[in-house]
Design a protein that fits this description.
Blueprint lengths: L1 H17 L4 E7 L2 H16 L3 E7 L4 H7 L6 E5 L6 H8 L4 E5 L12 E3 L15 H12 L7 H10 L10 H12 L3 E5 L4 E7 L2 E4 H14 L5 H11 L3 H26 L4 E2 L3 E5 L10 H10 L10 E7 L14 E7 L2 H8 L6 H11 L3 E2 L7 E6 L3 H15 L1
Parallel strand pairs: 1-2, 1-3, 3-4, 4-5, 10-11
Antiparallel strand pairs: 6-7, 7-8, 9-10, 11-12, 12-14, 13-14
This protein binds manganese (II) ion (MN).
């Protein structure tokens, strides 16, 4: 099935080559996989003579996509997200723009011939094991021009960042790109007691790939509204500098200060408890950090002693009405992130409690919200501002019916 993916990439490359506009808009995710994907596409399209506009998104929210698709005659590429919403993009596109999707999450086929969904999961590959968004972008870049082979190390950065290891090792396509980077002298693989650790050979010395990924994650998530993703893509292509080091240090201190303040509020009683859920709202207090922070924060506190280990943890954060570099999009939504304590993880795994992948999307759907990326133990969706209480109530109803 991999051959068919490459064939379809060749077909898409053919259409790109004939596209009248030598301009491309690249929309990519803001984690280390998404940033390395953005870096691969930037370099590859630059080399092909395209003028590039690049936008990082935390999620491809429908309100944002509607704004993107107000244009026509554009070449639009989505990286490390949007595989699942290819039908929605097809409806928005209506044959007006050439759209490429280079994702590796669970996907649906496109319904518009001008939308190419090149998500490997549609070709029988395992997007949560064999191939990252960055490796998908690398395959595309290599199909566009074999000269882009030198970008293999970027694919490896994304693969390590997404943590798709089997017995501690990268496998399949993710492994192939890493071995290619090793062959080029840009990486080294070191055996460990369990599995392997991956290292980048940079002009600043050798760096563990996972630490480099965490550095990118800070730029992309905490720095989301302060050009952090741009810096992240630059760091991928040009390595770190004193400027990027300083930015990361500042972002890390902003994050820990904001988290400490919020913990103090929660300890002071800013936590609402319903029969099965405990929840809080950070409003705009994590600004200017991105909304990924609410999930990171829930992760930080889920096992703390001021958190009831037997209730689901839910946090709300207002989504700023802005795509950096793209302007306001008319969004009035709030993000909810949910996590559970270690004892509850056991309950969910044993099937004695409802997983978040069912609980949250079901309740969100009742309120006309947007669900994306919900897993059993971690989940996030969005609903309109003002519907927070209702969302909690809907979840309580679902839990009561299930008990
Ligand atoms: Mn990814």
């Amino acid at each position: 099935m991999r051959e068919k993916l490459i064939q379809d990439m060749q077909k898409a490359v053919g259409e790109v080559a004939q596209w009248p506009q030598k301009k491309v808009q690249i929309f990519h995710h803001n984690d280390s996989d998404g940033l390395s994907s953005g870096a691969i596409l930037t370099r590859a399209f630059e080399r092909a003579g395209f003028e590039i506009r690049r936008f990082s998104l935390e999620k491809p929210y429908p309100a944002r996509l509607q704004k993107v698709y107000e244009q026509q005659g554009g070449l639009i590429v989505f990286a490390d997200f949007a595989g699942r919403i290819a039908p929605l993009l097809s409806d928005l596109n209506k044959g007006r723009n050439l759209t490429l999707i280079l994702d590796h999450h669970v996907a649906e086929p496109a319904t518009d011939p001008m939308v190419h969904n090149l998500d490997p999961t549609l070709y029988g590959m395992k997007g949560d094991r064999d191939i990252s968004g960055s490796t998908t972008c690398y395959l595309f870049a290599h199909t566009l021009d074999p000269i882009n082979k030198d970008l293999a190390y970027l694919a490896a950065i994304g693969a390590v960042g997404d943590e798709f290891f089997v017995d501690g090792c990268l496998v399949s396509d993710n492994r192939d790109v890493t071995l290619e980077a090793v062959k080029q002298g840009k990486m080294e693989i070191k055996k460990q007691d369990f599995g392997e650790r991956y290292y980048l050979n940079t002009p600043n010395g050798q760096t563990p790939c996972d630490e480099f990924g965490a550095y990118l994650d800070t730029l992309g998530a905490a720095g989301f509204y302060q050009n952090g993703p741009d810096m992240g893509v630059n760091v991928c292509l040009e390595w770190t500098s004193s400027e990027s080091d300083q930015m990361v240090a500042e972002l890390r201190s902003v994050q820990s200060r904001a988290f400490e303040e919020e913990i103090a509020r929660i300890q002071g009683g800013a936590l609402t408890k319903t029969p099965n859920i405990q929840w809080f709202h950070v409003e705009n207090r994590f600004s200017p950090m991105g909304v990924k922070m609410i999930g990171v924060f829930c992760d930080t506190i889920k096992n703390a002693d001021y958190i009831d280990p037997n209730r689901y943890v839910a946090g709300f954060q207002i989504i700023p009405d802005e795509i950096p570099g793209f302007g306001p999009v008319g969004m009035k939504d709030v993000k909810i992130s949910m996590r559970v304590s270690d004892p509850m993880i056991e309950e969910i795994r044993a099937g004695r409690k409802l997983g978040l992948d069912i609980l949250l999307p079901e309740a969100t759907g009742k309120l006309g919200g947007f669900s994306d990326a919900c897993h059993t133990l971690t989940a996030a969706t969005t609903v309109a501002i003002g519907k927070e209480d209702q969302l909690i109530e809907e979840m309580e109803k679902i839990l009561e019916a299930a008990s």
